[in-house]
Design brief:
The structure is a homodimer. In chain A, about 45% of the residues lie in helices and about 20% in strands. With about 375 residues, chain A is an alpha/beta fold. Chain A has two domains: about 180 residues, Rossmann fold (3-Layer(aba) Sandwich); about 180 residues, Dehydroquinate synthase-like - alpha domain (Dehydroquinate synthase-like, alpha domain, Up-down Bundle).
């Protein structure tokens, strides 16, 4: 692992443009990188206990060495921390710690929960503080840390409340993946497979060929694949920052995936696992609708199984699924903009009613 | 009162530009105006009970006649409703009522509390729904409904959490002021006087000349003054949407004003009353700093007294004031960007430490 693995990807959004800086063992460079980009002098680090224990000291050291005053904040690990009560607690703690409008920057050090919640708190405290995303999970590296979507969950569903707030910098140290629990790593792979499935047939083939060294975190395989994923995400976000249409393709697998998470009360299923189930179902539906050629679902499911991800929707009643779909935020009036595959490497949105997404008997047949 | 009083002011913010439409007895035209500007089909009206009772039915009728499905929501009257718990309750109620991303618009019908809270809920539900501001208080007509500042209060202070979210339209029916409680009307006058004090010496003279017919809501005096205030606010906001510097001038009187509100726990003092005290103090400090000529404070105080507004800071301990100032969101690192007058009609920001804003003995002397 060396500096030769350093990569930089630009997210082009006019005056809100920023860099994704990729490296291996690069956490110590964070402080200087933040100082070079922002006028801030006070760093508010948000993390969860397991991440804070492993990387909090190194990140603090790096920021202090670059001249920042540093305070650390924590929320309990897990999706259930992504709520307004935790946000309110953080507002209070950050204000009491001296957070102010002109000189503070939020550092979101962790996975998707920390990135989404930290981003939301940064978006709303003083009507917007800069945020630096330091993703330490595969999911957040390739997906949630890039693009400015921040948010919290409410009783009615996931991410229904939030803000678009682009980070000032995304700092990825791929070495942090070595301490990620294997189940979390597999979960993050769902978004990697998703990018390939909707956008990049060559990446899909590469994943089929190099899956084992990728899961073993061989940097020669891992870093180029991370970079490719960041480029895909960056290019989609640059074309459609506020999800007017095109960016919706990134929701592939998420309509059913969110329904599964919601029906399970966000317990016992990881985001990527739910998305994996949702993607396989969506591929089957794409075939059924005549959008994707036969064999698409089979090839996608085979890769996800090799990753070690679940591919069958859990058996809740159809009625419960339909209800969960009807508060889905991608709904446009009564139809949902469902993302279908045209084949491996290409996707489109199709406006569908919930009952068209889940025809009678579809759950038993898995479409 | 007739259509001859109709006025239109443009807030120029590139793709976020919008109109302020002023009229007398114009509430019935709201539905068509919203339909002409937005693709939405579902209107979510937020108000407080006294405003809802008076104008809810007329607004609902107007929106229904223009083809909208309409749902109404309420929060208790008063500043203390502007918090995250009310926001969370509204998210839930709006989602249960079928709010969705593609077809919903929030209508904030009421004063500053409804505008700020409704604007914040609109800014964050589904990461941003369009909002139409229908201000029914003088304060919200000339100040808070224009400019996109939305927010809620937290234990540490007022408006510390929020978002910039420009409305799609501001619809002002000046006739609604006739049902505004007199104390609220006087409170709103503080912001009118503020605009004149920081920006427009001619408007200040006009207020001195025409105060009685203005307070009596004579439309021939009221409407041009409302229009002038909206133009001042619009031009400041167009020059500095996110309060990078210039827009801070609008905070004149607010540094001490917010401290007073916070020390009183937002009880027993209206926003404009607190701002009135803060403005007089700030004028005295401006003289003391050699920024404003002698007599500035006296002239400002005389006008505010004629309006019927309080002009002396309440007697909390200096220590308490200093603590309240130190979480003020306009603080830049340890200094506060204090707004001083250069004279009637002109202002500037001065970076000051809390103890320079409140030198020992200043509270007794009122500076």
């Amino acid at each position: 692992m060396s500096a030769s693995h350093a990569r930089s990807v630009r997210v082009r959004l006019a005056e809100r443009s920023y860099a994704i800086e990729l490296g291996v063992g690069s956490l110590g460079g964070l402080g200087e990188a933040v100082r070079a980009r922002l006028g801030a002098t006070r760093a508010l680090i948000l993390s969860v206990p397991p991440v804070g224990r492993r990387y909090g000291a190194a990140v603090t050291r790096s920021l202090r060495a670059a001249g920042f005053r540093v305070k650390r904040f924590e929320v309990p690990d897990g999706e259930r921390s992504k709520n307004l009560r935790q946000a309110e607690r953080l507002y209070g703690e950050m204000l009491e710690a001296g957070a102010d409008r002109g000189s503070s920057v939020v550092i979101a050090l962790g996975g998707g929960v920390v990135g989404d919640l930290g981003g939301f708190v940064a978006a709303t405290l003083f009507r917007g503080l800069p945020v630096v995303q330091v993703p330490t999970s595969l999911l957040s590296m390739v997906d949630s840390s890039v693009g400015g979507k921040t948010g919290v969950n409410v009783a009615q569903g996931k991410n229904l409340v939030g803000a678009f707030h682009q980070p000032s910098l995304v700092w990825i140290d791929a070495a942090t993946l070595r301490t990620l629990p294997p189940r979390q790593l597999r979960s993050g792979m769902a978004e990697v497979v998703k990018h390939a499935a909707i956008w990049d047939a060559r990446l899909f083939s590469r994943l089929e060929r190099q899956l084992e060294p990728l899961l073993a975190l061989d940097p020669d395989v891992l870093v180029p694949i991370l970079e490719r994923n960041c480029r895909i995400k960056a290019s989609v976000v640059s074309r459609d920052e506020r999800e007017g249409g095109f960016r919706m393709l990134l929701n592939y697998g998420h309509t059913l995936g969110h329904a599964v998470e919601s029906l399970k009360g966000y317990r016992g299923v990881l985001h990527g696992e739910a998305v994996s189930m949702g993607m396989v179902y969506a591929a089957a539906l794409s075939e059924r609708l005549g959008k994707a050629p036969e064999g698409t679902r089979e090839r996608l499911e085979a890769l996800l199984r090799r990753v070690g991800l679940p591919t069958k929707l859990p058996s809740f009643e159809r009625r419960a699924y339909l209800r969960a779909l009807s508060v889905d935020k991608k709904k446009r009036d009564s139809r949902i903009r469902f993302v279908a595959l045209r084949g491996i490497g290409e996707a489109e949105t199709v406006p569908l009613l919930p009952r068209e997404i889940l025809p009678a008997g579809a759950l038993t047949r898995q479409c």
